[in-house]
Amino acid sequence: MASKTATKDIITLRGSAAIVSEFFGKICYSILYNRGVYPEESFARVKKYGLPMLLTQDEGVKSFISNLTSQLSEWLENGKLQRIVLVIMSKATGEVLERWNFSIETDSEVVEKGISREKSDKEIMREIQAIMRQIASSITYLPCLDEPCVFDVLAYTDKDCAVPFTWIESDPKLIANPQMVKLHSFDTKIHKVDTLVSYKNDEWDEP
Amino acid sequence: MESCKLEEPIMLLDPETEFLASKEETGNEWELFKENVRPLKRGRNVRLLNHALKSHSHSQLKNSLLHHRRRLIEAIDEYAGDDPLQPWIECIKWVQEAFPPGGDCSGLVVIYEQCVRTFWHEDRYRDDFRYLKVWLEYAENCLDAEVIYNFLEANKIGVTHAAFYISYALHMEQKNKNRTANEIFNRGLSMKAQPVEKLTAAYKKFLTRSMRQLKATDEDGAENQLPARSFGTVLAKQTRNQAPESSDIFRKKLKPDRAPGSALSIFKDNSSSSLTHHQSEMSKLDLKPWHSLGARAERNKENSAIPSKWTSNKIPHRPGQRIGRPPPGPSIEIFVDEESSEQHKPDNDGEKSSVLQLRPGDDRDIKKETELLKENPLRNFPPSSLPR
To answer: How far B232 CA sits from the closest chain A CA (Å)?
Structure first.
């Protein structure tokens, strides 16, 4: 049993799964807000992770995301989640414009043996904040999404995972010849999350 | 190339998985220096962006950028194929990416102008979308783009594209000429400009905004309390030459877009505080729309005597702000140091239609020309080509 020092906290598998799935929910909101998938007016300010966050008031989106995060939590606790991707597509054409890619590495020892790890909660918070800030700053290089868009979430799981009935199997919805940018990662010592955003290469001659 | 960790060596990974697995890092200069980056509607290549931002402190990188730019300009001269517009586009795209702050010294405005002037009379590019885009980007950089739109319409350039009407109408909307904007949309629709869906969608949004504007009284706008996220709408509105919404007219508009005025101050280069510059600064900030397009002769004067009525809206000079401002980017310094000492081409002056004028032999020339062009975008065009 690890002893709690002043700077480290105990992280259990369940706790870590909760952190990661909650992170993902908030990231969804942040991306939807920053990329303009939903109108600004539909968001309200809340404080979380030490940064003012914006959550949508749209009930449909809210319940979608909360169902999503509970499913993710379950998969994470079983160590079955490999990657989660938020896809932004053109409403009119269905073309994939952006992919926000979160790949997850799970410490299998923890899953098998049920042990816990140690890491300062504050530090995890800081790492998450850094990612959120990067997302907001990504307008520096991301193409302007000036048409109505919709989003979807793809989960990459282990093959032996049953598909829950609110999910369907899907193709990966990749972007051809994407531009890709790696963002910061965060690590709970049980789950490590790497972030990547990919977007369409610019076409000067696309009207 | 980066090495990838593959579990099964034969398996073909999608590019993202490959990239994620690779050791290759994306530099974070883009985040560190984001204030120096002018967002582009089409997005940026992050590698090139990081490279350009790094050149800030790396003379070798600076040199390689200059060298590349020179080569692209040479490619324009040397091109012998069927599509002479293409090397121009390559050059423009690259300069946009390689000089992230943009600004008067990137030479972009001069390049736009030379490009459009080279091909304006050519039938083959009349409907070419790439060509139209160069015009539209040029327009975004000018103080009053209306002359450009008029010119394009009169010369039937780009009039089959929805983007033309959308840009034109939005510009008029920002000048608070909604009726004109409405007419423009309708012209586009009757021309069946492509893609039609894009045009109709933009028109619908415009109508919604106009309705709201009519209904709006003293709406404080709850959205004003939300942090600015307006990237999409701001860019679509061609912020650079917009009057700040410090006027009541603009405040009534419920658009959640942000401070074009502040965008102005951020992106403005530290040009010398010459009188012309101040005048252009004033006219930029002035809110009164130009009433007479017909006064072309007046506008074509080099030292554009600004009509007296404008002075009634004088906005106080902020000379302190001008002078105290540090240069936004080292690109200014680079040009003067590198290029003027190295190659000074004899035909660097005078020849208007020569691409060689692009060589930034004299950084001051570029800035001066850029300023002149911004005020009078069609100044180098033959008078016979101008509408009316």
So the answer is: 5
* Contact check, Cβ <8 Å, A207/B163: yes
Rg (chain B; Cα; Å): 22
- What is the amino acid identity at position A186? F
Q: Where are the beta strands (DSSP E) in A91-173?
A: 96-106, 117-119, 149-157
Which of B8, B31, B35, B234 is the mutation pick for testing A, counting most A CBs within 10 A?
B31
**pTM of the predicted protein model:** 0.64
Q: Are A87 and A153 in contact (CB under 8 A)?
A: yes
Counting Cα atoms < 13 Å in the Cβ hemisphere of A110 gives 24
Rounded to a whole number of angstroms, the distance from the CA of B49 to the nearest CA of chain A is 8
Q: Which amino acid is at A68?
A: L
Q: Residue A47 forms beta bridges with which residues?
A: A52
Tell me phi and psi for residue A191, to 5 degrees.
-120, 130
Distances (CA, A) of B129 to A79, B124, B154, B269, B375: 50, 11, 17, 30, 25
Helix/strand/coil for B146:
helix
Question: Which residues in A98-112 are b (16+ Cβ under 10 Å) and which e?
Answer: bbbbbbbebbeebbe
ipTM greater than 0.85: no
Identify the closest residue of chain A to B39 by CA–CA distance. A140
Q: Which chain B residues are Cβ-neighbours of A178 within 8 angstroms?
A: 15-16
Q: How far apart are CA A64 and CA A43, in angstroms?
A: 16
Which residues in chain A are contacts of B162 at CB distance < 8 A?
A: 207
pLDDT tens digit at each of 207 positions of chain A? 555 455 788 989 999 999 999 999 888 988 998 888 888 888 888 776 566 667 778 888 888 998 999 999 999 988 889 999 999 998 888 899 999 999 999 988 888 888 888 888 889 989 998 998 898 888 888 988 888 889 999 999 888 888 888 888 888 888 888 889 999 999 999 999 999 999 987 777 666
How many other C-beta atoms lie within 10 A of the C-beta of residue B9?
6
Which helix (H) or strand (E) segment holds residue A48: the answer is strand A43-48
Compute the distance between CA of residue B317 and CA of residue B283 in angstroms, rounded to an integer. 12
Rg, chain A, Cα only: 18
Phi, psi of B225 (to 5 degrees): -85, -15
Bridge partners for A179 per DSSP: A199
The gap between the terminal CA atoms of chain B, to the nearest Å, is: 57
